[in-house]
Amino acid sequence: MAIIKRRYRNKKQQKPITYYQAEVFVKGVRVAVKNFSQKREAVVWHEKQQYKFRSNPTNLNDRILFKDCVEDFYKDAKLRILQSSYQRYEHQSTYLYKSPLAKVKMSELKGFHVVEWINWLKKHPTVQSKRRYSFKLEIKLLNTILTWYKNFHNEDFNVPITKKHKQLCIYKPHIPRRPDHFIQPDDAKRWIEQLREYKSNPVYWKLATFMLLTGARISEACGLKWDAVDLTNGVARVVRRVRWDYHTKQPYLEDVTKTVQSARLLMLPKKLTEILKEIKQQSISDVIFTNNEGKILKYNAIQSAFNHSFKKLNLPWRSTHICRHTFATIALMGTKNLSAVQASLGHTQQSMTQKYAKAVALLSSDIGEKTSAILFKTAQK
User: Fold this and answer.
1) What is the chain's alpha carbon radius of gyration, rounded to the nearest angstrom?
2) What is the spatial distance between Cα 142 and Cα 96, in angstroms, rounded to a whole number?
């Protein structure tokens, strides 16, 4: 029962005045509040209001607007998720609060409202961006918010997002990813040599080599400390990561990993162990890969160095994540062991590993000969 005893005192009054505030909550949402001078009156009013909303639950839904639902979602998300994830959600809020959905009641939210919202998005200034071809992330966030509302506030609510809406959010043709989305071994060697000549900081080629030989994410590699590395046994433990503030771009360490499976052991090849020993002799920080001042690397500086070397060699890649794809594909090509590659990458599901390690890596060298033998025997018969 939400009956709260409160006191207040005016400047003219010497004794404080006591009153009782009655609050009515339905499914975690405060739907009514009123002040009383006596507790008995507050209790009677509270019970009547509770009965009213329980007997007619649609009254609750009629009161909640979409913008209020979004606000409650953000308050809840801020307590549960990491700061980096919350900043990403916060950045996308402009597509929700100022949209046609803002003043729609949750009880009246239907599929055609989502269509109107998508059409509104297609007129947004960000459609002019060369890299943007859809609003997939925005509709994914909308789906997350509506599912949260269904789970925590109204289990009778139907999320009105269908496959049609996911297709409508694509407004520009998009070239699908190349089947060979990984750096060829010869190109990888040339790229590392090109990074060696990058004058700003000699650590970038070492960072790229570490990522290519371990499959570590950029955040995991930059967050690696000496206390998590055993150079004698050639093992590194992934137990933390670096996140870059969305607004200031400043790096900060988080003592967590992306997922539970991301906390794993990385086996270090001899070549990589030798590179790390060289870094340790000159290191002035407990973090392994740092800038010239011993501070954590900024992501935009890393990306600039990587892309500069890609452009110099006329290679099509423009991403730090290509190193992870390269490790996955070449590792699967060499071992043919998808489970081992999955463990190295720290993936929860094998299907995700298959996206990273391209199907071409599973092809056997004698597949053509075996196919030819079967067809040849069939032809003879």
Assistant:
1) 29
2) 8
Residue position matching structure tokens 């392994």:
288
Average pLDDT, the chain: 85
Report residue 346 as tokens.
């720290």
Q: Which among 230, 106, 209 has a CA at the least distance from the CA of 159?
A: 106
Question: Residue 184: which H helix or E strand, with range?
Answer: none
**How would residue 94 be classed by pLDDT, with cut points 50, 70 and 90?**
confident
CB atoms within 10 A of CB 298: 16
Rounded CA separation 14/6 (Å): 16
Query: For the residues of 190-210, what is the DSSP string, one character each?
Result: HHHHHHHT-SS-THHHHHHHH
Which among 82, 83, 122, 80 has a CA at the least distance from the CA of 99?
122
CB under 8 Å to 372, separation ≥6 — which residues? none
Do the beta carbons of residue 29 and residue 64 sit within 8 Å? yes
- Predicted pLDDT at 40: 87
Q: Cβ(306)–Cβ(208) under 8 Å? A: yes
Total residue count of the chain as it appears in this document: 381
pTM of the model: 0.72
Nearest to 347 by CA among 270, 267, 258, 277: 258
- What is residue 247's three-state secondary structure? coil
User: Can you tell me the distance from the alpha carbon of 69 to that of 74, in angstroms, rounded to the nearest whole number?
Assistant: 9
For 276, other C-beta atoms within 10 Å of its C-beta total 22
Q: With CA atoms as reference, report the closest residue to 124 among 98, 101, 90, 89.
A: 98
Q: Which residue has the tokens 């925005």?
A: 138
Smallest Cα–Cα separation from 153: which of 88, 94, 70? 70
Q: Which helix (H) or strand (E) segment is 223 a member of?
A: none
Write down the residue that tokens 């030798």 correspond to. Answer: 274
Token pair 């090509």 is at which residue? 333
- DSSP reduced 3-state for 232: coil
CA–CA gap between residue 356 and residue 342 (Å, rounded): 10
